[in-house]
Design a protein that fits this description.
By secondary structure, the protein is an all-alpha fold. It is about 55% helix and about 0% strand. Helix 1 (about 10-20) crosses helix 2. The radius of gyration is 15 Å and the shape is globular.
């Protein structure tokens, strides 16, 4: 990855999946397809901050939409964010926008963390499926 050459695939995938499962209306655990999509983004060179901005931007759009709109279904897959991430890649944003979105959504993001059962391990829920070996 040109912008962050020091980040490993594992660290990238873990960060993407951690962000994904921390968002409101997303599952508490990432699935196999979510992991493979995150690996694909890494291989395509999508910057981690672009992936995070895309996920947070989509969450902001859902959160701050017109209150009298149709109820939205929960997000079932990381694929939900693909279009917004492509939009981010084409329009270009800087990392300060990521900080802005995190601040804007801080109360919404904290709600999911506080609503998780106390019995849940401190281990991240992203490690549901092993990362495929590159040598297969």
């Amino acid at each position: 990855m040109s912008e962050q050459p020091f980040i490993t695939q594992k660290d990238y995938v873990d960060a993407v999946l951690d962000t994904y499962v921390s968002l409101p209306d997303t599952p508490n655990r990432a699935g196999r397809d979510d992991r493979y999509l995150a690996i694909t983004w890494y291989c395509q060179g999508i910057a981690l901050f672009q992936a995070k901005v895309g996920m947070l931007m989509a969450t902001a759009r859902r959160t701050f939409r017109e209150p009298d709109g149709w109820p939205l279904q929960p997000i079932r897959s990381l694929r939900y964010f693909v279009g917004v991430i492509e939009e981010i890649q084409h329009s270009g944003v800087d990392e300060s926008y990521l900080r802005y979105l995190q601040q804007k959504l801080s109360s919404v993001l904290a709600e999911k963390v506080s609503s998780e059962p106390a019995a849940v391990s401190s281990e991240s829920p992203r490690r549901v499926h092993p990362t495929p070996s590159a040598t297969k």
